[in-house]
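ok so I'm stuck.
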Amino acid sequence: MKQHLAGVKGNIDACKKVSHDIRNQMQKNLKVITNKKQDAQESLDSVNPYGDHVNDEQVENYFAPRTSTGSQPSLKSVLASKEVVHRADIAVARWFFDSCIPINVLNSAFAQKAIDAIASIGPGYKLPSYHIMRINLLRDCKEECRLLIDSYREHWSVSGCTLMTDGWTDRRSRTLINFLVYSHRGISFCKSVDASDITKDTTTLCNLFSEVVEWIGPTSVVQLVTDNAANYKKAGELLHERYDNIYWSPCAAHCINFILKDIINLSHMVDITRNASKITVFIYNHIFLLAWLRKREGWREIVRPGATRFATTFITLKSVFEHKYDLQALVTSKYYTDSKLSKTNKGRDAVRIILDNHFWNMCLVMTKVAGPLIRLLRIVDSDEKPSLGYVYDGMYRARKSIKLIFKNVKRLYKPYTLIIKDRWDRQLRQRFHSAAYFLNPSFQYDQVNYYNKPEVVQGLIDIIGNKDICNKSSVAMNEVRLYRDQLESFGKPIAIKMAKEMQPDEWWRMFGSSAPQLQKLVIRILSQTSLFSGCERNWSVFEQIHTTRRNHLEHQRLNDLVYVRYNLNMRDRYGNACEILLFYVIKY
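replied:
not stuck anymore, here's the structure
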């Protein structure tokens, strides 16, 4: 009504009959009301709804950014952002394709970190020059790796470490010897030696080993692990004469691999593996058969890689046996019998094998025979956890399991147990294995399955009796009784329970306080590995760097490339558990 009388248009028509005095008065009244509303709103806006100590910027941090105040991102802005990302992707793709960069480098753990670092700088970042990359940045990355390895040294002196070494020949017929250090903190690469022009006799190899031992610190090295070659074995024994606290051990994975190889070479095994191979090749060479099988419920591929070539053979045998009914359903189906393939010699041969019960029985037997060995191979081949404490038990259980498979009929199990015993006695068994078995609580406190033989205790006595390893032997031997009889800290219910659940070295750290001298020794033993396959896993690293394409690099810089590349790979493999130290910012 006031707007009607005041002649204010918008919400209502103005009154044409009202006098000028009344209109002016109504306009003044409306102005007063409007001013009061504005003052009230300003007073309300000045109050912080979140409290006096919280500002609006802090609150806004908890909400997603908006493209404009009070609005959702428009379709145009979304499409524009996708276009920007696509342009960046295309720029990276052009670089890769122009320089023939392998696409799998995108899987590197460092790829996205590099892109994020560039994005944080913003436009205008210039890539490092050729000289800076090959000189300055290589030097700085090497220094980072050196600091990482130095951070391990304290752990080496307390928990001990294993020097792993292995020689191999590349495609240019050069012999390279790689040296790595294993500890429970991770694997570190030391150096790679081109031994092509070196006579690899016992003394020369021992001198090479001694150089690395001195670099690590002789008191930190517990054992040297190499392959089973005679010259490496003798060099390891000579190293033990120089450093009485360092023992030589062969690679457990290689010995197990030789056992599997010997079993495969048994006359009856040759036929079984040949027939299994025929089935596998037959199926995978004919796509329409594979397509039919893949429609079966719960289908898994027959061919699955193992840790080694011989392990793969047994894993494939097991896989073929698991697909027995699928394969028999295939060759007896109308789908197959109506096909031209069923009329061929290869087709009939495959049907004969698949429907042969003797073949399937032998597959089952061989799978059971190899099962304990494959399990042990997986344990020792995992260098992310110490495995020395499991080798002796694994070999004992393998022989025991094989005897049970054949119901203790000697003429049936003897061919297999003889192979294991021969390789174990002749190549693998060492004092450390016996001592580690005795000191592993998961086996010592298993009264049913513990293998209580004199050789086990004798191995422990030999280790404790070595003054360079244990300078208080009598004290340590008395503490062995506390551990064996589950007394004091070893007898706590939680200690006995966790013996099966914890890593043995960690168990001793937690529950070995009643035997401090023995605890110190045991941690150093049970923290070690039993293989050198960490060398093998990164042979490709050395192959890529030791090439004619980079022969213009001087020898030292080439070694620096290997040093950085390998240690970065190992850091990535261990899940960045220990970050490389960023030690300074360099100005060029």
